Amino acid sequence: MEPGFHLEFESDSIKSENLRRFRQYEASICRTFKVQVITYVICSSKVRHPLTQLQCGINTYKVRVIRLKDNNADTLLEKMTQRQKNGEHLDTSDFVQAVLAPLMSGSMPVKERILSTLKLLRRETENLNREELDMLNAVLYAFAIKFLEHDDLSEVVVSSNL
Predict the structure, then answer these.
(1) What proportions of the chain, in percent to the nearest 5, are helix, strand and coil?
(2) Structural contact between residues 79 and 57, judged by C-beta atoms closer than 8 angstroms
(3) Residue 158 to residues 76, 152, 153: CA-CA distances in angstroms?
(4) How crowded is the C-beta side of 145, counted as CA atoms within 13 Å?
């Protein structure tokens, strides 16, 4: 079987009901597409030791958790901004980290993290292909919708259309 993955975002602690739902998704994907599936949960919760496995009869279901609260968004975005100011171009791997800044720790409000990343992206439009740019923007908008109130969300949309 070809390997595959299932990606989830959790802003609350991971509960057994979440694991049961993820397990159902995996089973459906495996059966439908005939692939092995591993679920990765990007966790923005402050919980230090999230639930990662569930005992189901004789089986143990497991997910892989990616915790970003230990990373500092302020530091990451400042370093990226400085690199651009020094004339260095940022690539897709740099932006994969940056678009996840809303899930990291730091003192910068989530809205500012999103706006800062959009600004960095705008400066690299000629160095990224259109598909990569669209994907990165889509992730940022998804986080904006998830984490921002209406007025802040409107500001992000207006800023992105400049």
Answers:
(1) 50, 20, 30
(2) no
(3) 24, 10, 9
(4) 6
Q: Could you give the CA distance from residue 50 to residue 160 in angstroms, rounded to a whole number?
A: 34
Higher pLDDT, 161 or 150: 150
In this structure, what token pair is assigned to residue 122? 């705008």
CA atoms of 132 and 19, how far apart (whole Å): 31
Relative orientation angle of helices 130-147 and 150-160, to the nearest 10 degrees: 160
Query: Which pTM value belongs to this model?
Result: 0.72
* H/E stretch holding 119: helix 110-122
Q: With left for phi above 0 and alpha for psi between -120 and 50, is residue 159 left, alpha or beta?
A: alpha
- Region 41-57 average pLDDT: 86
